[in-house]
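Box 3.1 — From sequence to structure: DNA mismatch repair protein MutL
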Amino acid sequence: MPAIRLLTPRLANQIAAGEVVERPASVVKELVENALDAGARRVDIEVEQGGVKLIRVRDDGDGIDEADLPLALSRHATSKIENLDDLEAVASLGFRGEALASISSVSRLALTSRTERQEAASRVEVEGRDMDASISPAAHPVGTTVEVRDLFFNTPARRKFLRTEKTEFNHVEECVRRQALSRFDTGFTLRHNQRVIQSLRPAENPLDRERRIGALCGQQFIDNTVVIDAEATGLKLWGWVALPTFSRSQADLQYFFVNGRVIRDRLVAHAVRQAYRDVLYNNRHPAFVLYLEVDPANVDVNVHPTKHEVRFRDGRLVHDFIFRTLHKALADVRPDDHLRGAVAQSHGRESAGIPGGYGTQASMPGVSNQPAPDPFAASTGQQPAGFSGSPRPPQHEWQARDQMAFYQSLNEGGGVENGGVGERAAMAETGELAVASPTPPRESGDEPPLGYAIAQLHGIYILAQSRQGMIVVDMHAAHERITYERMKRALDAQDLKSQPLLVPVSLAVSQKEAALAETHGEELLQLGLRVERIGPETLAVRQMPALLRGADAEQLVRDVLSDLIENGESDRVEAVTHELLGTMACHGSVRANRQLTIPEMNTLLRDMEATERSGQCNHGRPTWTVVTLSELDKLFLRGR
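Predicted structure (token representation):
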């Protein structure tokens, strides 16, 4: 073995640069974070050739004293922490004091800065060869400008791993997007090869924040989101989560911030995925921009060189808080929330009257202020029988009456198919199909979100009319979600019952898994699983949930233990149970080609409006869609 020797400062900085500086985007991240820590309200980023030739970051922050400039480029030199207590509760984005030293070791770096106390600015320059800093006077306003030229000029092996100019700039743009999402009170400008790519003013109010989100994540995203704002047990979660109908093929629109720091954490990802489990289609990913505020002492940000990962002191508390908040928010989404997104995309947020409920008739292009004609009136223009000159019964009365008749017909199989079809077919020939079953007339301002049914298409779809336009409902998918949610509530009301196995199932596991099962015996019992350790590497399953008596006990227990190892908890039993309930709901729902009356169709629409997550069936497929009046006008070139 050779003798032990100290590394030279240059070599030590280049080794550190291997952790901090992966590509030009890494440099931009570190410099922008330094600017934000300095209290900047304006940050300008300029890059050339994807950042390889030049990266210039200018801010209007506090600046650096002339005496501190050489020290700013030294390793482990920082003004952000001073003792161990500061390290245990880091409130700044940077704190290690390695960024500038690492960047200067693999580039030609120049830093110009001025504080309010100084009459003139100072400039320090350093190159990667000798690391000697030279200071000279300069002209500069209060703030700091850092120029990084010829990145990796002295480490060719690192430079050859860089991608094309377009790819590297895409990474830079994504980095700036994350920083702009993290600080709404700061303005950002991004230029590439002297061309302005992004110019964002400070967003001081909710409307400006939504505009910034729309500019960075797309207007469709902000038009299809649910606003989150929850606080409990020292945690605060706020931001925007997309409706399940606005899902992505990949996880490219997911931003999560902890105390202003963008992170990618497995615990957070699992909580979000669990919240969306019942409403996302296969292999689709949710979209969200979320902000978690927590006491800095309860989160460790010093677990990864790039600070992309964090460790929470009470991970389970954070996981449950995120899951329950998002789960409740998605469950509370009703059809009118979906309609707001659809109308906003069609007309624009202002013309659609968003936020504050869906737009009135006066705000909708091509719609007059007169009450909409009753779609259930006969062709002669008269009111439906039973409603002419008589007051309308209270809404809850006719809803309850129609709902009782609807589900009685579904359960008994009578009425709808036995004779009802022939009778309505005869009435259709005389134009009286719509008035066969009385339906309450609509009044201006008293219209349900999904409107009122007017017909059934091909025995599969319900066609409804509302102020927004035309609504098409997949009756099987809609009824499937309604049935599924009712079965879940019924199961929750009576708890998860379990039954002993006639022959216990023995399975071989690792010692770690066996010890875990022994430690979490009470938690497994709450899931309906009674698992005993009968050997160093052997478990016996003696009890299973009654609802899952036909499931593979061995595989279920292995999956539960795997979840416990990875996440500290498991929802595997609940997931399998809900999957079974979903299958039962699918088979128990109204099938295609089932002829429904107008009141039955309206009952289904009203149930959808009152049911959680009714926008998707339990397989994640959409249950309804809307074609707005403006879209219909475009189809027929009206108003042109």
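Summary of the box: The mean pLDDT is 80.
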